Q: What sequence folds into this?
């Protein structure tokens, strides 16, 4: 059986990739993918630890997280489509209206 | 005996004021409003006089009665209760307040009636009577209030009414300025008065004159040789002197004594009835009334009394000197008022408060008469006030001439007229001054009396006897040029010639003339009821000198010799003017006008002895400079505003730096969030590991 530390390490690596992606990417689609990556890293942790402790609580949380992520993506994509319609660009650095 | 009626003396004029001030809201018919004002405004004052007379007759041998001012209230009800500070809302009925209430409502009522005719054509007829009724109310509050605070309310109230009425025709800048001057100069005096009241509160623990428990200031001062406070401790003599001097500063301002007299001549800018009522008969005597009310304090301070006497004498002399060179009929009378007020102060200063009040009363009669007579002259001359342009009016205004003549002889101290008795009583008391300087005060008083007789007869000659120095054509032009701005010129008369005044303007003059002749005899030493009626009546309100351990000196002259000397002085002054002007019937001037203008003495006298110039330099020029350069630029702009601006600028600068943090890039915010979360988690981990 694969030790739980492997799962947790993988999860940490995925989460870090996600964080770095959110910080450096200028394309909102890519940023979204990175956010999904972070969510799934967390989900992986939940499942691994749930299995390790022999409870189903972790799996329950994952289902919640998937549902929330799905809702979030649909709203997020809607916003991106609207921004594109208005500005003909979805570059995040172009959407810096608050600065001035 | 029901003295509760006395509440009405005060409230009736207030009702009149409320009616006049609000009638415009619900009476749309201006003619009706004017008719109602004509009835109500003088009516309430005359009714108040009737009540005051009734109360006085009921008063009998009662020495003092304190009654609550509000109907149904108790004399123990507080007006202000603030910590240990308690003031009641009561009025004190005693001989002093009743005598003054009679004068104010009586002379005030007559002047109200006179004003009906005088102000008939004025656009602001109702406004005039609004102020007049308010003035009577405030003056009565000053007189009747049973504590310093109510007196102060009345004191300020009459000041406001004086201001409003001096600048009644405010569309003329000069009138508005005169009102400002009167109000601002009075601030100086009022500061002294209010400091005096605060000192009284600090040392006595009360500001009431009399209280039901006999713990009022005047009752506490009613001990031979010392003054107690409410706890029974002795108040130091130096404090009494300080209080008296501070109160005296207030009296100097209100009663136009040196050095604060400069406002009174300018106050003649108001309508003539205002000059008669406020600036001759009543308000300006408030200082004398206040000193008399506080006589129980003043007799304990020989220093303060001496100050009062000398300021009084100096003012009497200087006022008379300045009156001799004036060419405006009302200004002659204004300086004469200053001079006569000086006499009253001199009387108070030698401890003879009773004769000070005696002179207040007789002066109210003959000076009101003089002003109203002058008003009738001005009215007939269609607004002309310059006596150089009058002359020969005796033929045209015989009844005005007659009453003016009576008043002139009365103020000059012609034997047996009212002014003779009161002035002689003052001179006699001055000659017996407790400080031993009676000779100086008496001599000064006599010289002033001579000057008074001279300048008053000068006025009469210039106005009534010498050849006419105007033509009907001038009057005609004057009427059309001036009637709108002066407001009181009568447009309905036949145009172009001197015209007589309506009967409502004449019969108050006749009543005052009777009083100016007879009141002095009635209240004086040879009057009915064994003589000295006023002195005996006032006795409970006035402190004797012996209370402060002071003693009048022996007589300089026997009373009869004093009467003869005063009579000679008065007749001498009157005759000198008659002789000098009798020789110059054509020009009506003793001095050549050009030479007079060039004389430095005349110029000094015409310019208020230079007081105006000094005040101008000190307060307006130097004070203005200090305010503008020092306070406005130095303190306000460079310090206060600079500090405010500095704070605002530094906040702005910091904000400018902080603004750079807001890049608008989502990833920057995400990074900050990450840093925050990491910091938080590190902190939590450290916390967990430490346990």
A:
């Amino acid at each position: 059986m694969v030790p739980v530390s492997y799962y947790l390490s993988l999860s940490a690596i995925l989460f870090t990739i996600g964080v770095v992606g959110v910080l450096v990417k200028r394309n909102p689609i890519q940023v979204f993918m990175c956010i999904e990556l972070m969510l799934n890293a967390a989900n992986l942790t939940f499942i691994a630890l749930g299995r390790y402790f022999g409870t189903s609580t972790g799996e329950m949380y994952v289902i919640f997280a998937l549902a929330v992520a799905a809702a979030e993506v649909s709203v997020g994509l809607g916003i991106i489509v609207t921004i594109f319609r208005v500005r003909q660009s979805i570059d995040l650095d172009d959407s810096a209206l608050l600065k001035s | 005996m029901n003295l509760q009626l006395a509440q009405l003396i005060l409230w009736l004029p207030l009702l009149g004021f409320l009616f006049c001030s609000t009638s415009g809201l619900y009476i749309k018919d201006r003619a009706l409003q004017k008719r109602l004002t004509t009835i109500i405004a003088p009516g309430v004052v005359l009714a108040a006089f009737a009540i005051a007379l009734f109360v006085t007759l009921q008063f009998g041998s009662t020495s003092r009665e304190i009654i609550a001012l509000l109907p149904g209230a108790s004399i123990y009800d507080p007006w202000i209760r603030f910590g240990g500070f308690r003031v009641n809302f009561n009025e004190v009925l005693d001989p002093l307040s009743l005598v003054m209430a009679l004068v104010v409502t009586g002379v005030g009522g007559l002047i109200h009636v006179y004003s009906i005719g005088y102000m008939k054509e004025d656009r602001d007829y109702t406004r005039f009577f609004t102020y007049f009724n308010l003035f009577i109310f405030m003056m009565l509050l000053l007189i009747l209030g049973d504590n310093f605070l109510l007196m102060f309310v009345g004191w300020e109230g009459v000041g406001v009414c004086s201001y409003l009425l001096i600048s009644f025709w405010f569309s003329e800048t000069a009138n508005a300025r005169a009102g400002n001057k009167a109000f601002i100069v009075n601030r100086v005096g009022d500061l002294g008065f209010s400091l005096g009241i605060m000192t009284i509160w600090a040392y006595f623990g009360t500001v009431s004159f009399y209280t039901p428990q006999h713990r009022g200031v005047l009752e506490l001062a009613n001990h031979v040789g010392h003054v107690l406070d409410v706890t029974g401790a002795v108040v130091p003599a130096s404090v009494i002197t300080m209080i008296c001097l501070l109160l005296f500063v207030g009296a100097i301002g209100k009663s136009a004594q040196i050095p604060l007299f400069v406002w009174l001549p300018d106050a003649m800018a108001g309508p003539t009835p205002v000059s008669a009522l406020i600036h001759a008969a009543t308000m300006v005597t408030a200082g004398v009334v206040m000193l008399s009310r506080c006589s129980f304090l003043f007799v304990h301070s020989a220093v303060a009394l001496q100050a009062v006497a000398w300021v009084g004498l100096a003012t009497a002399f200087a006022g008379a000197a300045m009156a001799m060179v004036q060419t405006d009929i009302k200004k002659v009378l204004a300086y004469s008022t200053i001079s006569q007020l000086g006499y009253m102060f001199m009387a108070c200063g030698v401890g003879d408060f009773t004769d000070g009040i005696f002179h207040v009363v007789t002066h109210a009669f003959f000076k009101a008469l003089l002003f109203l007579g002058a008003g009738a002259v001005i009215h007939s001359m269609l607004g002309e006030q310059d006596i150089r342009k009058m002359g020969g009016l005796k033929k045209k205004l015989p009844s005005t001439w007659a009453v003016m003549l009576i008043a002139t002889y009365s103020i000059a101290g012609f034997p047996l007229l009212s002014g003779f008795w009161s002035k002689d009583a003052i001179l006699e008391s001055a000659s017996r001054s407790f400080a031993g300087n009676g000779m100086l005060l008496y001599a000064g008083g006599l010289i002033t009396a001579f000057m008074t007789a001279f300048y008053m007869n000068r006025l009469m000659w210039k106005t009534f006897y010498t050849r006419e120095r105007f033509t009907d054509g001038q009057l005609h032009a004057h009427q059309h040029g001036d009637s709108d701005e002066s407001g009181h010129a009568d447009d309905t008369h036949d145009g172009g010639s001197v015209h007589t005044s309506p009967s409502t303007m004449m019969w108050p003059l006749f009543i005052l003339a009777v009083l100016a002749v007879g009141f002095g005899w009635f209240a004086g030493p040879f009057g009915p009821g064994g003589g000295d009626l006023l002195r005996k009546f006032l006795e409970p309100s006035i402190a004797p000198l012996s209370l402060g351990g002071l003693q009048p000196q022996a007589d300089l002259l026997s009373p009869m010799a004093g009467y003869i000397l005063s009579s000679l002085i008065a007749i001498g002054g009157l005759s000198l003017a008659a002789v000098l002007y009798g020789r110059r019937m054509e020009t009506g001037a003793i001095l050549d006008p050009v030479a007079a203008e060039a004389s430095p003495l005349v110029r000094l006298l015409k310019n208020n002895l230079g007081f105006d110039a000094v005040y101008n330099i000190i307060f307006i020029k130097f004070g203005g400079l200090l305010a503008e350069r020092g306070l406005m630029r130095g303190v306000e702009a460079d310090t206060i505003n600079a500090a405010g601006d500095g704070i605002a600028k530094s906040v702005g600068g910091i904000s400018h730096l902080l603004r750079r943090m807001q890049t608008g890039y989502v990833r920057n915010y995400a990074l900050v969030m990450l840093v925050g979360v990491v910091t938080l988690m590190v902190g939590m981990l450290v916390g967990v590991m430490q346990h």
Notes: Residues 259 and 611 of chain B are 8 Å apart (CA to CA).
